[in-house]
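Before the break, one more example. Copy the sequence into your notebook; we will annotate it together after we see the structure.
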Amino acid sequence: MDAVRRTRQCSRTRIAHDQQANKGAKQICLPMTRETYDSIWNDAAAVRAEVKAVLQKSPELFPPGMAQGFRLTGRLPESAKLPGIRLRQLRLPNGAAYTLRPSFVMPYMTGLTDHVEYPLRLLAWGAPPWLVAEGFGHDAHFWDRMLERLGRNNLVGTTVRDPQRLPQHLAADEHHADWCGQKGYVALTAGEGCILGVALTESADDAHLTDAYGAFAAEARQLQVEYSPESVCSDGWKATQNAWRSLFPTICVIRCFLHGFLKIRDRCRKAVDLLRRVWEVYRAGSAAEFTERMTAFQAWAESCTWPAAVLEVLGKLWNPTSERSRSLNGPTTARRIRCIASFGRTGFSWPAPCFAIAAVVACGPQHKSYGGIRIVTKKSASPAPWAF
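Here is what the structure looks like once it is written out:
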């Protein structure tokens, strides 16, 4: 008899964002190896010198007001989970108390980074928690919680510690995923080379994408209340564009040039001259030059004979010329990012485990639904020399 397939119960309903004010972190993670910890942790003067050195090098790791001074107020009791590990405590002049945790110790004292790194990689590749437990100890629930905790942290706040460094130019796109046997979408937001927003949603309409991208907006505004990016690069999906205009009314939505090129390339890979001319249009230095080059390209393309499928995507390339040329009116950063919104295909060629981790972050611990996500990846041929 065929065994009945047991599937994990997953919720496809997103919980509304918590409007409670951000209390801020009360723990400072200090970059430190185990050897350094063993040599200085019992010496208050040495710990103070280490904190000052890290504060000077990486002030974004510390709370505001740290530069005005601090005092060490002793050590906490030895951890029951990690024998030999004791956290330290410091206090600022305003009375705020913070705990110092060495970076080789996981949050909540759940383990050492060297001990959990490889098991988490196995979990990212889809290894079941019970199998990881057989090889690395603990039980299945322990590793299940370790993976689940990846969704607890504020993604923007842990990546961008200084509000002044929030990117003004973003890229956004949706990755298709199999969620609980049905189709789901992972709404991704990137800026300055970092993934800043990951949210899972069950539909790609205006309301659902606004809610999904709203997770990034909420986290960014916890860091800077008046945050409003200048531009976002996206594909031609209207729901994505409407979602960003709804979240940030003053934002400039830039049409991704790369998406147009890929659609042309997929239909005529051997038309080298056509593909070369497309990128010549992209390399325009100003909006006026871009419009001029696109007009010339359109005239040339219409004088040639192309299959109906190619003509269709060519028309989609030159019709929204004004939308694609907007980035040329702004800083060069905006022009660069208009070609990186195709996550998982070019600029962000993530392996499957990265999307698995992203799915966990997107769901968060309140959903307990990452077990029902199957990552859908597409194989593509090696890019041509003119492709990114």
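Residues 163 and 223 are 6 Å apart (CA to CA). The beta strands are 27-30, 71-75, 88-91, 97-102, 169-179, 182-191, 194-201, 231-234, 252-255, 373-375. Try to locate both features in your own notes.
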